[in-house]
Amino acid sequence: MDILAQVITSFIATGAFGILFNAPKNTLVKCGLIGAGGWLVYYLVEGYYDDPVLGTLLATVFIAVLSQELAKLYKTPVIIFSVAGIIPLVPGGLAYNAMRNFVEENYNTALGSAAQVLMLAGTIAFGLVFSEVINQVIRKINERKLKI
Amino acid sequence: MNNEAERTYEIMEVCLLAGKIMLQSGGETYRVEDTMMRMAASFGIEKSHSYVTPTGIIFSAEGSEPTKTKLIRISERSTDLEKVAIVNSISRKISSGDLNSREAMKQLKEIEAKDLSFPFRMQVAAASLASGCFMIMFKGEWNDFLPSMIAGGAGYLSFVYFHRFVPIKFFSEFLAAFVIGLLSLLFVIIGVGHQLDKIIIGSVMPLVPGLLVTNAIRDLMAGHLVSGLSKGAEAFLTAFAIGAGIAVILKFL
């Protein structure tokens, strides 16, 4: 039940972000589906291993690879699909905690949260790099298939 | 000879306009450069160089005559992915030879003048829906759904209005975050809202610089160090402005 609520809310949230970014109308549902899929990956992995870093990494790779394939299929730029999906993975809650602790002068707790925020932001970056590599490998394999 | 020079300038105009629209609408730097060079190549300029930063485009075309270079300054940037997609498809048509430079210029000018964005009411509705949903995704309770929807929608609305009033992006983000914090605090004090933290986190999400962050990383990866770093700096400033706006409210707690 909980998972169902998460999937539905993440679908609506990423689709709504598509509207804010003014994505073409016929891609809005696909944006939402990618976002929901990415969030489901994050939610399950994070819940199972209790590790947001691993969850963020896998979800980012999932979103980026899928959007690349969709972009090839529909001949549109990749960012249209990937951008809205990545947004839920941004560690907004942790950043908020860090800032709140800074304001309340609990500097030790604040620094801990800030370090986690940096870790997660770096993970998103690394996930994007990683998926770029995967895409290149897929392209190479396809080219080789064509040659044979 | 003269004719050829004129033709080169015409092609450069088309390429620069396409690049300008793409960059202003939030396209990645490498895509802008790539599109401009491809368009130039399919119009017959084999060797061209483009240098794109978030604030300007330099494009030069080599030919039999001396190399020509033009510069375009970009001052306004927004997010409009549909325009990126349309320019992309125009460039595809040019590459396949379906469009000549005159036609392409006409179509690009039409797109530049058009406002393709969703109606403003719909954007605010989307922002408030997204806020409510994000609140649930960040492990909030359903009884906070309506408060965070209202706070998020009001935050986005005030961001757009402040931005029209004072065209300094970071200041309007600061004010919008302040409005969100104030509303959330009010809701909790009245008793409509329950968890202040969750409401604020959810409502702030529509302001988060997600596109900038992903584009910054993509640019850095593709070797566009200047654009990547400057987009990263813009994203950081935005995040800082949002944080500062909320921090003012938290100081009152």
UniProtKB/TrEMBL annotation, chain A:
Q: Name one GO cellular component term.
A: plasma membrane
Q: Does the keyword Membrane apply?
A: yes
A single GO BP: succinate transport
Q: Which parts of the chain span the membrane according to its record?
A: 6-23, 28-45, 51-71, 78-97, 117-138
What residue range is the signal peptide? none
Give the keywords, sorted. Answer: Cell inner membrane, Cell membrane, Membrane, Transmembrane, Transmembrane helix
Sorted alphabetically, which Pfam families does this protein's record hold?
ThrE_2
Annotated family: Belongs to the ThrE exporter (TC 2.A.79) family.
- The identity of this protein, by name, is Threonine/serine exporter family protein
Automatic annotation (TrEMBL), chain B:
**Its membrane topology, per UniProt?**
Multi-pass membrane protein
Annotated compartments: Cell membrane
Which of UniProt's keywords are assigned here? Answer: Cell membrane, Membrane, Transmembrane, Transmembrane helix
GO CC term, one of those recorded: plasma membrane
Q: Its Gene Ontology molecular function terms?
A: transmembrane transporter activity
Q: Does the keyword Zinc apply?
A: no
Keyword Cell membrane found: yes
InterPro entries tied to this protein: ThrE-like_N, ThrE_Dicarb/AminoAcid_Exp
Tell me where the transmembrane regions lie: 145-162, 174-193, 199-217, 229-250
Q: Which family does it belong to?
A: Belongs to the ThrE exporter (TC 2.A.79) family.
Q: Which PANTHER family match?
A: SUCCINATE TRANSPORTER SUBUNIT YJJP-RELATED (PTHR34390:SF2), UPF0442 PROTEIN YJJB-RELATED (PTHR34390)
Name this protein carries in UniProt: Threonine/serine exporter family protein
Query: What is the organism field in this record?
Result: Neobacillus rhizophilus
